[in-house]
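Homework help thread (please don't just give me the answer)

Our assignment gives two proteins as sequence + structure token strings and asks us to describe the second one. The first is just a warm-up. Here they are:
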Amino acid sequence: MSIRVVVADDQDLVRAGLVLILGAYPDIEVVGEAADGIAALDLATRLLPDVLLADIRMPGLDGVEVTRRVAGPDVANPIAVVVITTFDLDEYVLGALRAGARGFLLKDAGPELLVQAIRAAATGDALIAPNVTRRLLQAFADRSPQAPTQPVEPLTDREEDVLALVARGRTNAEIAAELFIGLSTVKSHIASLMAKLGVRNRVEIAMWAHHTKRV
């Protein structure tokens, strides 16, 4: 089955480019386009796509608020959201990740990484642009005035390994290959990490890792 995607960006040329790129892949179907946040929210609510690809800065509602409304902790059936931005140190990015986005990319990331992010989000995984993961998350961790929450239970050695790879932007499949373990085992470790760290998703796991200087 195709991955159903809604593309939201207020720049017509950028939006058309994203649609053109995604349309070249047989496993991806663009089912809607939005030029502002209100339209993006409406389409996501009505069409229930597998993935919403949303610009971080849009009129009406920005990408952070759209993400919160379709993927936030209070949403019963959250939609996978991948946010895109022009600036790798955009302050809105942290808000989007906390609002429930499964990943983010720079607009110049290229077709291959864009498609990887869409596929990862559709399967419950997350992808953060590798070239900005460390610098971006570290920058936000340094600015945060709050001390990170300590694990409710100590992390195992294997969980520490998985934690480090998640923080570097690896997908579940890449973690499995690098650690020579099964995909289901990776998912179990990530679920355990979320429970121990009190976070909602793998992006917050990465943020915690950078905040505590684990990587």
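The one we have to describe:
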Amino acid sequence: MDLGLSDEQRMLQDMVRDLCEDRFPLTALRRLESDDDGLDRDFWHALADQGLCGISIAEAHGGHGLGLLECALVHEQFGYHLAQSPHLASSVLAASFIEAAGDASLSAALLPGIADGSRIVAIASSEAGRGEDLSDQQAVLRRDPKGVRISGTKHFVSFASIADDLIVFGRDEQGGHVVALAVSPGADGITLRRQQTMASEPCFEVQFEDVFVPSERVFADGADPTEAWRAAMSKACVVIAAAATGAARRIHEISTAYAKEREAFGKPIGAFQAIAHYLADAIVEIEGARVLYRNAAWMHDEARPYALEAAIAKLQACNIFRRASALGIQVHGGLGYTTEADPQLFYRRAKQWQILNGSEAWLTEEISRLDASGGHAGV
């Protein structure tokens, strides 16, 4: 196992870092918190111009066909800068599911647009009181002579208001199995409502009232999408772990810099062991999270089973980000809780990233299931 980076990978990191520093300072994030769509279009177009929207999509579909490690390195920089975009939802989660689902027609229709950034695809899977497991889906599909009709409500659909397509999961009324659909958000019977989240990220409740979906928009002729979904979630877990690692490092740097400047009793507060030791422990944990996500990504790129490592990486990285952001609040004292200060931007996102796209409870169950089935962590 070699977790070092090649010259090309370091150049990729540098390019994304420079792009985020130039196009997405924290002031841009603050502005987007009150924006209905939550999308900085100039930043998104810049990502597309650099080819980042298709970084891990196969070359046959217009992407670059790079590995999961390269994609994770990009998201570590996104996390460091809290750069908000549909990249995770569309270029990672949706694109990974579409490729894994194996529907040639829908792959040809959707993936080239995702790869060049002209098409944004969101995932509509979460339901109230239900977990990430597709077996809990309650949205109902009824067969129609020319396709299917779906009714139900999905929650926390990222960037649904600007999406060109929604990947929706529902349960066949007759067979009882889960089916995946590609649905246009503008179809009759769809209603969107912005949902409030801790991080003020653009998440929506999407209601489907007898929405007609033509048969050519049903994935793999209604085949069970469970394995494709698990494959996509494993990739997303690695990418989120990378973003959480980057964000944790940034709030740690902010906290360390403040501890060197803020004085109490005639010397910087960082000189006190009560603060210095906590900051030292935190950076060790952050480096550990980096090793975990890079190991999981490396295993994927080496065509080795990695779902267990992916779940561990996401669980640990998000927990560490949560602790690092809480420490940042404490180091800043009362200032850290104010909206004028930056630490709260990280603190609120840390908890939301823990919950969405693989909650702590679901990840714990996945780790137990995968370990019992014979998987072994690589670290």
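TA reply:
I won't write it for you, but here's a hint about the kind of observation we're looking for: The CA atoms of residues 158 and 257 lie 33 Å apart.
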